[in-house]
Amino acid sequence: MDPYSRVDARINKAYVFVRWKLTLYGEVINLLNRSNYRFDSFGGYNAKTGRATVTLDRMFPIIPSIGVVLEFEGGRPAGEVELLRLRLEERPLRRKLLALGPP
């Protein structure tokens, strides 16, 4: 039996939005379509011939797939947090200017 060998390939493209991210992907498992075998069962032993039999299963054929991953973020988006911080910082400054009166 040959040694186990498999080549997989995957490509991702991510699009980032304010509160979520969209990732598109394509992948191929066993890109070279190599015939890998694994032991399945022992078939028995023939005492007359001195032979043992085993059953082997072929593993993965070439398997292409495509997909979409959506990731959502909880809480406020980063831009909205910054705007809120600016608004809170502006209020005391406005109060100080009003307290000083007109120039």
Instruction: Write the H/E string, N to C.
Output: EEEEEH
Shape: elongated
Number of helices: 1
Low-confidence stretches: 93-101
Features of this protein?
two-stranded antiparallel ribbon, alpha+beta, 103 residues, 3-stranded antiparallel beta sheet, disordered C terminus
Quick recap of the structure?
This protein has 103 residues and is an alpha+beta fold. It contains one helix and five strands.
List strands and helices in order, with pairings:
Blueprint: E1 9-16, E2 20-29, E3 37-46, E4 51-58, E5 63-72, H1 78-100
Antiparallel strand pairs: 1-2, 2-5, 3-4
Describe the protein.
By secondary structure, the chain is α+β, with helices and mostly antiparallel strands. It has a domain at 9-74. It is 22% helix and 45% strand. The chain contains 1 helix and 5 strands; from the N terminus they run βββββα. The chain has one helix at 78-100, and strands at 9-16, 20-29, 37-46, 51-58, 63-72. It has a 3-stranded antiparallel beta sheet, with no helix packed on it. A two-stranded antiparallel ribbon has the order 3-4. A hairpin with a 4-residue loop joins β3 (37-46) and β4. The longest helix has 23 residues, at 78-100. The protein is elongated, with a radius of gyration of 32 Å. The relative contact order is 0.19.
